[in-house]
């Protein structure tokens, strides 16, 4: 729950304990904007603030499912300039993400990793209850492949954000979000499944 702004103070606390961490970030948006309406902290800026504060090991950041509207003609430039791996949604269409997650596990190694999952990473056909839906997103099966593909990583924290049940009369978004959180709990180090 909550919007993606919550990840910023969480990563401040995580980095205080573990140092800069890797990040597996599932989202329709990179959330690396600089400001909105003059504000530096909002749900579209948390990962820029994290970079500025040295909270992320930028060589171990991967963003999956990125797509949709942007205010910039090259919306992924900032991310690439930081060393992030950006996997646009169109590179995920109609295929299993297990091979991608094998590459991600190699990239993350055995150092601390944080998993941040914005529900709008999924197509709004499955998860319409969010404030910034973008068409042509990931499927629930791909979401499970991503989360389960993180099993064995040194996960030191995770979140699932941007669920807005009032935008979904069916309740499917909340159901999907709860199941994805359960899956995240199952991949935490030391959990026997």
Quote the CATH topology: Arginase, Chain A
Task: Supply the number of structural domains.
Answer: 1
Report the CATH superfamily.
Ureohydrolase domain
Calculate the mean pLDDT score and round it: 96
Q: What is the level-2 CATH architecture name?
A: 3-Layer(aba) Sandwich
Distance between the termini: 25 Å
Keywords: Hydrolase, Metal-binding
Protein name: SPEB protein
GO molecular function, one term: agmatinase activity
GO biological process, one term: putrescine biosynthetic process from arginine, via agmatine
How would you sum up this structure, described in words?
- The chain has one domain (4-109, 129-154, 176-187): Arginase, Chain A.
- Helices cover 32% and strands 19% of the residues.
- The protein has helices spanning 7-18, 46-52, 77-82, 98-108, 140-149, 172-187; strands spanning 21-26, 56-66, 85-88, 112-118, 154-161.
- It has a five-stranded parallel beta sheet, sandwiched between helices.
- α2 links the parallel β1 (21-26) and β2 (56-66).
- 46% of the residues are buried.
- Pfam families: Arginase.
Structure at a glance:
InterPro entries: Ureohydrolase, Ureohydrolase_dom_sf, Ureohydrolase_Mn_BS. The protein is of the alpha/beta class. Helix content is 32%, strand content 19%.
